[in-house]
Amino acid sequence: MNLITAHKDLKQTFFQDFKERPHHAWILKGPQGVGKVDFAKHIAAQLLTEITPDDHIYTKIENQNHPNFLYISPEASPTQAISIEQIRGVFQFLQQTAPDGGWRIVILDSLNTLTPNGANGLLKILESPPPHTVFFLIQHNGASPLPTLVSRCAKLSFAAPSSTDLLPFLPEGLSLQEQTILLALAHGCPAHLQDLLDQEALSLYGSFQQAVRSLVEQDHYAPAHTLAQTVGRDASKLTLFLSLVEWWLQNAVKEVALQQRCFFTIQCSLASLLDIHQTISKIIKWKKNLDIDGRQLVLTLFFELKNLRA
Q1: Domain ranges of the chain
Q2: What pTM, to 2 d.p., does this model score?
Q3: Residues contacting 32, CB < 8 A, separation 6+
Q4: Cα–Cα 20 to 30 A to 182, which of 87, 198, 246, 273?
């Protein structure tokens, strides 16, 4: 469970404030995917080992099998919400005495997914918090929790980390270009970076590059059709593919304009590239608003990209 450098400073801030004013509830607010839950788990690990040292504390927290630790997230249901029943489970957890007399930690992930009834139930718990209990309430940007709930919590704000902060999260052996691609698409979010690795984004990028070269240099459509079949049937792969295409085009425009070629080696004018970029951006925007067949969408993008050879 890695903690990025920027969050290490926040961790120090937390413990300084906690020592002076041991607040029972903390809202961790910031963009989704920047590591707020991991931060809360790091704090939990330190608090839970104050009395009883435990070399396996991080494993127990990740597996949610520590008796003094509770992690709440949305139920696997169509609503994807934290229900009042789950909040009642928090109340039952807090009725139990901590075996070692130490801290009890509750992480709620997140306030964005808390139902109104769940929010009211949580508010009742926070109004009369049990001793030696700390709540970490995750709030992604865009949520508007109950003002009365917010007023009972201390707050820590998280910003998106820099690309440098994410370097320790990258696998070893990557080229500079591969690192650049992953860091650009991750947008400073460790969770997004992990998603890119899990979805083999670099392999997909390589297939895309091969398909573009075959189309532009040889008028060969087979790689594009193969990629359309693979990507078009998988919603998550399609979303990733569209992100790759948009980034590649944005970067291509920049490289051609500055005459600093790195990723984009196709010979074409800046005017042509801007036209293609504008057209493809519109197509991708339409996809977000309309239910378009994924395979046909990919082929449509390649149909526009073939104009790079003009």
Answers
A1: 3-159, 200-307
A2: 0.75
A3: 140, 141, 189, 191
A4: 273
